[in-house]
Amino acid sequence: MIKIFHLGDVHLDSSFSGGDLALREKKRARAREIFARTVEYIKENGYDLVLIPGDLFEGDSLTRDGADFLRGELGKIPCPVVIAPGNHDPYVQGGFYSSDLPENVHVFTGEGLSYFDFEDMGVRVYGYAFTGNSHRQNPLTGFVCEDSGRINILCAHGDTASPLSPYAPLSVSDMENAGFSYCALAHIHRPPQMIEGDTCIAYSGFLIGQGFDETGRGGALSVTLEDYGHRAVARAERVTIEGAGYEIAEIDIDGSQNDGQTLEILREKIKKYSAETSLRVNLQGNVSKDYRPDTRRLTQQLSEGLEYLEIKDGTLPLLDVESYENDQTVIGELFRTLKEKMLTGDERQRAMAAMAWRLGLAALEDREITPILGIAEEEGED
Hints:
Purple Acid Phosphatase, chain A, domain 2, six-stranded mixed beta sheet, 14 strands
């Protein structure tokens, strides 16, 4: 049996999203801690081979200190490491991959398919490199593994979602027909379902979330290869390293009339999140017609105990829908004009329509509108 650890899309030294510069620097430091923790996991669990199919680091922002960190951590791994550079960490002369790397690290350097042999395991790992931010050809077209007596593996950064992708479009049928036992892929951060069978095809997914489009705990794949003579059979299981990351919570504050009531609801709902969580709260529900949650104030009162918090208001002033729907005055006409966008528009359309409704209603009912106008200025800042 051969044990393989498959990780990719790490994006070390990336800029992350959300928060100020100090928070982003904190996230960069924690990303390195998680990578170091991953290396310890590899060492403790006795893997025979590590596959990294690209985007190990963010090429434009990798610092000298970051490069030294990577060399040190990769050198601690007590088995061969194979890297197939991707579109964010391409192989370029003078770059990290062309520098003096630890002896256990093997890097593909050209856009054409090549391989590394590991005779003691009877394994041949095929792969290629991005040498820029795109790779428009399918490197596997018509390819068949040369030596069926070996365990043939593919380590590749590529896109199986579109044959026209500029990021090395890969065909599932090409991978299956080539004779690979396992295809270790990266590039799609939210991995599609693993393909199992004679050829196991899997994306590692992201190791560390970079923003609110990558919620939940990151991870990698632990792969076992059993050689049954005619073909090695691969089985992959997800391994979670990161304890917390980015999360999005949809919280209903239906019926809330002021920030005090909203605060009580939110405190109860978000107490389950840890201090390492970056949390986005989307407020939902129908609230009092003259109430607009003060998201800045709520954020200040609730952010303690979280790495980062942002609150977005998606509430609607629709507590008396039937009454406004049947109102024959200007108020009813205004409501009917805005109703569709408030209910079915996209996020920005709903927010703008709800704000217009609040402003118009306040003006028509001769209520104070200055505090609400402050909301309009806040919207404009985004």
